Amino acid sequence: MIDEDGVPAERVLAEIRELRALDRPTHGGRLFAYVYDPAVPGLDELAAAAHAGSAHVNGLDPTAFPSLLAMENALVGAAARLLGGGPGTTAPEVVGSVTSGGTESLILAVKAARDARPELTAPRIVVPASGHAAFAKAAHLLGVTLDTVPVDPKTLRPAAADVAAAIRPETVLVACSAPSYAHGVIDPVAEIAAAAAAAGVRCHVDACFGGWTLPYLRRLGAPVPPFDFAVDGVTSISVDLHKYAYAPKGVSVLLHRDPALRAPQYFAYADWPGYTMVNPVLASTRSGGPIAAAYATLRHLGDAGYLRLAAATRDAVTALADAVRGVDGLRLMAEPESTVVCFTATDPELDLFVLVDELTARDWHTQPQLRYADLPPSVHLTVTASVAPRVAEFGPDLAAAVAAARAAGPVRLPAELRALATALTPQALTPELVAGLAAGLGLDGDRGVPERMAVVNTLLDAAPPALRERLLVEFVSLLQRPRW
């Protein structure tokens, strides 16, 4: 890896280009997860230049680098204004912080709620089962108990009454989604926030996914229900700028209704001989690159640009949903109300995981979702503006992929393997057993990830969640090994 005499710059860049050729395409409108592409000419170059100009600026000390402080404050102000806060609103004192992503924003929302109640020895949070997994990560890291509320298998939403019933004296935070990532539906935020307020508990709206699009979709005529600071009882909101604000990766915003609510989010430490540490977020040193890139992106696109991108995305969602409706054996999990199309199979002979592989073979990269409780496995499409020019190609390819999946037939796990997946406990997994399973599934550090994942997904789908978690940890661990 480290050459004795170093490597010429062009050769290094060529190596990176060669490695990048193995990745899913980040542009072109054929990847329905992980990346957000507006297909705006020149935007990548602008963001890259802004990133390079501030890459070495350190967010650790705003007194040393006031440029970064100014850009962060501008990003927070833009997000607050979009989400019902700021002068002239019912939430005029909204404050916020720029974080590295939605997971950090959610962890900090939980931390602020927990640390605001220091008298509690066993704090808890209430989250719908459809809430992002980052809430579970936050609970795990912060020593908070996670109380999940089931969602209706038809509406895919929690009932506000069930959320209210789950609140205990030890509850420090209630969460809801606008929308949920998995299915793209908006929780009953107003009712949940009212229940939280009645119990004297904070209410966080996870709008990481939809916070930058729902206000624009509403302006375009979509019936978007209240979900932001216009709702009494909403105390904090998270919104990712590296999603539908189309900024490069590494930028989210966590907003609080007022400074007092944000205060417990900070970490300060002076009881050592070095500098007094004061951090509003989890990291201390932070590169200014992503923040400058987000600032440049928002300034360049502007309000009218975001409205145009939302309109293009809405039209793409409508066309994709129509394509799904037009294929026998598929049904939408929910009528689209944001930027997600999610569908499942109604034909037991149509294996969704085989279908995902067939779509991948046609250069459509989708996200399979495993069964959960009463919910069937499904296929998730995150739709961006870049999909709009390609959407007419999706319907015929979907029909062809369904026909190929039917011809191939469902994955049939060997009886002993299925029995193992349903009966094995996480504690019973040994390194030898994991290695044998991985080899049989084509997962190892030398070959990387197999092109077709239907067998792997079928095995994981058959396993209960705790075993899925352990299997995936072990499988990923096999892939993440040093390169000597």
Automatic annotation (TrEMBL):
Transmembrane is among the record's keywords: no
Keywords: Lyase, Pyridoxal phosphate
Residues where N6-(pyridoxal phosphate)lysine is found: 243
One GO MF term: pyridoxal phosphate binding
Top-rank taxon: Bacteria
Entry-linked Pfam families: Pyridoxal_deC (PF00282)
InterPro entries, per the entry: GrpII_AminoAcid_Decarb (IPR050477), PyrdxlP-dep_de-COase (IPR002129), PyrdxlP-dep_Trfase (IPR015424), PyrdxlP-dep_Trfase_major (IPR015421), PyrdxlP-dep_Trfase_small (IPR015422)
Lyase found in the keyword field: yes
GO biological process: carboxylic acid metabolic process
Cofactors: pyridoxal 5'-phosphate
SUPFAM superfamilies from the UniProt entry: PLP-dependent transferases
PANTHER family found in the cross-reference section: PTHR42735, SPHINGOSINE-1-PHOSPHATE LYASE 1
Family the entry assigns: Belongs to the group II decarboxylase family. Sphingosine-1-phosphate lyase subfamily.
Name used for this protein in its record: Glutamate/tyrosine decarboxylase-like PLP-dependent enzyme
Species of origin: Micromonospora palomenae
